[in-house]
Amino acid sequence: MYIVAVTGNATILHIIRIDHTLHEPMYLFLALLAITDLVLSSSTQPKMLAILWFHDHKIEYHACLIQVFFIHAFSSVESGVLMAMALDRYVAICFPLRHSSILTTSVVVKLGTAVMVRGLLWVSPFCFMISRMPFCPNKVIPQSYCEHMAVLKLVCADTKINRGYGLFVAFSVVGFDIIVISVSYVMILRAVLRLPSGEARLKAFGTCASHVCVILAFYIPALFTFLTHRFGHRVPRVVHIMFANFYLLVPPMLNPIIYGVRTKQIRDRVTRGVCRKDP
C-alpha cells in the first residue's frame, strides 16, 4: 500500500507538472492533495512497516512528537484541500462561464496557502502542550503510530485543556470543511437537477464522482477514529486499531487510483506514457 501511494501520487504530480494543459484549479488542488498524501504516508508508514516486519516497537520521544505534528497538520491540510476542490466543482458547475475569472491562479495559490498555514498553525500547540507534561511509567501506545489522543492517554496529569483544544481544532477545521463541502454539493445537486438534458446531468455528476469517493475514503475512517478515541470505550480495541490504520493507509493509496481512473486527462496521459515505453 505504501509503494502504491508513493508511486501513484508521484505519478500524478509528474503528469500535472509536465502537462501545461492541466495547470487549472482542479489539477492544482489535485497536486496539493498528492503532496499532502505523500507527506502523510511517508511520516507514518515506514515506521508501521518497521513495527510489523522487524518488531521495532520503540520510537524516540521527539520523533513521536514530530509524527503527531505531521499526522494532524497534514490531515488538516487534506481536509482543507477537499473543501477547496468542492468549491472548485461548485464554481465549475454553477458558474461555468465565469470559472476561469473566479478561480484564477492567484486565488488558487492564496486558497492553498491558507489551507496549509491553517493546518500548521492550528496543530503546532498540540506538540508544545504535550512536551510540557509528565508521562506515566507505562509508555505503550496501543496502535502503530503516535496520534494526539493516544499519546495524551499516557500523561499522568490533568489533560482537560489538551482535550478541549483537540475538540476545538477538530470542530473548527473538519467541522467547517464538512459544512462547506455539504453546502457546495447541495448547490451542485440543485443546479444539476435543473439541467434539461439527462446526458448533461450524467456528465455533471460524473465530474463530481471522483471527488465524492475521495471525500468518503478520507472522512469515514477519520471520523470513526476521532469519535472512538473520545466516546467509543466499548469498541473492541482491534476494531479501533484497524480503523486507525485505515485512516492513514487507505486515502493516500486510493486517491491517485480514483483520480487516475475517473479523470480522462490523467488517464489518457498515463496511457500515452505507457504506450511509448512499449517496444
UniProtKB/TrEMBL annotation:
Residue intervals of the G-protein coupled receptors family 1 profile domain: 8-259
Q: Which residues form a coiled coil?
A: none
Going by the entry's taxonomy, the superkingdom of the source organism is recorded as Eukaryota
Q: Which residues cross the membrane?
A: 26-45, 65-87, 107-131, 167-192, 204-227, 239-259
The answer, when asked if Phosphoprotein is one of the entry's keywords, is no
One GO MF term, please? Answer: G protein-coupled receptor activity
* One Pfam entry name: 7tm_4
- Keyword Transferase included in the entry's annotation: no
| Keywords carried by this UniProt record | Cell membrane, G-protein coupled receptor, Membrane, Olfaction, Receptor, Sensory transduction, Transducer, Transmembrane, Transmembrane helix
Protein's membrane topology:
Multi-pass membrane protein
Q: Where in the cell is it found?
A: Cell membrane; Membrane
- Under the cellular component aspect of Gene Ontology, which terms does the record hold? plasma membrane
Q: Which Gene3D superfamilies match?
A: Rhodopsin 7-helix transmembrane proteins
The record, for SUPFAM superfamilies, names: Family A G protein-coupled receptor-like
Q: Which family does it belong to?
A: Belongs to the G-protein coupled receptor 1 family.
- Role description: Odorant receptor.
Protein name in UniProt: Olfactory receptor
Q: Which species does the entry assign this protein to?
A: Myodes glareolus
Lineage of origin = Eukaryota, Metazoa, Chordata, Craniata, Vertebrata
